[in-house]
Amino acid sequence: MAILFYDSSIMSPMILALLLLASLGCLFGLARRRQQCRPLTPWRLPVIGNFHQLTSLPHRGLHNLSQIYGRMMIVYFGSAPYFVISSADLAREVTKTHDYHFSNRVKSTASRLLFAGSDDLVFSPNSHFRRQAKKLCVNELLSTKRVQSFYYIIEEEVAELVAKIRFSCQDGHSDIDLSSLFIGVANNIVCRAVLGQKCTDGGNGDGTMGELVKEATELLTAFSFGDFFPFLAWLDSLVGFNKKGIQISQALHEFLDRVIDEHEIQPPACRTEDGENNRKDFVQIITELQKNDMSGLQFTRDNIKAILLDMFLAGTDTSAASMEWTMAELAKHPRIMKKVQDEVQSVVGEQPKITEHHINRMKYLHCVVKESLRLHAPFILGRQTFTDLTLGGFKIPANSSALINSWAIHRDPLIWDRPLEFLPERFMDRSSDYKGQDHNYIPFGQGRRSCPGAHFSVSEIEYALANLLFWFNWELPDGMAAEELDMSETAAQVSHKKLPLRLVPVPKAV
């Protein structure tokens, strides 16, 4: 003890100052290393993590947090940490530089229930089977040539949509629910392309398959205790979540089994008027590939049903929502609606029917749809890495989950001029497409996990909108001013208008 007192008593002020500086340097270095190793995390509560900071619209809540904690931050959804990315450059690192390493999907309780453990394209982890199955689907089901062979379905269903709207005009200047009509036409187009039959002959696509897909979509976006609080997973059974998922899954699989059986017993007629054998539906194509062993893959019946279910879940809600938002934006911006209507009229002229050739010449319509998808893109599903890596200078451990907030990227003022405004003209001289080549514009994602059905979806959206703008003028109901149109949105994987879009169609003397 005496020695210690002695030693401390004879220390010079310079030595004390050096020790103090060394201590501060160590602390600073440690803090810096920690900061370099992990992104910032918003202050969180025990158990619930950052849920209380996300608001009712998670994509907006995450954007607000990123303004404080950076373009890559760790957000805790309950006990599940996610690396949330709100920067185009960092998103490109995930989907380009580390595309292979981030090629696993964050699987949810709902997806496990719906697919009953079968490998599909959307939710299955990266594997040889998934890579080959996606290649097969892109080449045989979703290629440009194949989409063109389905174009007659889009034309026929949109013609029925126009006829329904025309019929409603007989009652005078009454408004119609476009949101429901868009869901109906999207469901029927996908049903006919996939199964060779309509979802329903009624008005709103609420037949057997249409209703089941709606329930499945709602289940995928519903809250599950097991996804965010693994120790409370038993509550999913208690509140009926698991039972509901199993019921929907069984009903979907029974329906798809019947359709596949019917195709095997008696394939539908698929010849066109000129004799070409190119009107096969998805079920017919994929079962023939399986039967003839042309794919090189061992497709089981469950694999086929899982892939067909992917087509419905990815192809109906997104297309309907995009039509809804685009018409809403046009109703809110009469100048833009007039401009795109003039283009449609100029291109079609006095022709009695709009064709795919006409659509290809409607440059401003393409810009309108792109701008709508910029502002109202679906929230991109989470990815998961299977190995350690470095992202944006931070160390990311294996099995980490990442979310790319495309909503935030599409509103980044460093990328977009007047980002909150609906300005289709911004795409007139911009070479953005839907393939993810422009990493600032990713409405359908990028890389291995991008949506392979983008071309099909956009073809459907553009053709429907062109017809609505060609055959009708559109007014807001009850003398509502354009600035009064409610543009509130729902909180879901695919965001719809909170209130259905109701507009007044006025037939044009074309």
UniProtKB/TrEMBL annotation:
GO molecular function: heme binding; iron ion binding; monooxygenase activity; oxidoreductase activity, acting on paired donors, with incorporation or reduction of molecular oxygen
Binding site for heme: 451
Cofactor names: heme
Statement: the UniProt record of this protein carries the keyword Plastid: no
Gene3D superfamilies reported in the protein's UniProt record: Cytochrome P450
Keywords: Heme, Iron, Metal-binding, Monooxygenase, Oxidoreductase
Family classification: Belongs to the cytochrome P450 family.
Protein name (database record): Cytochrome P450
PROSITE patterns: CYTOCHROME_P450
InterPro entries: Cyt_P450, Cyt_P450_CS, Cyt_P450_E_grp-I, Cyt_P450_sf
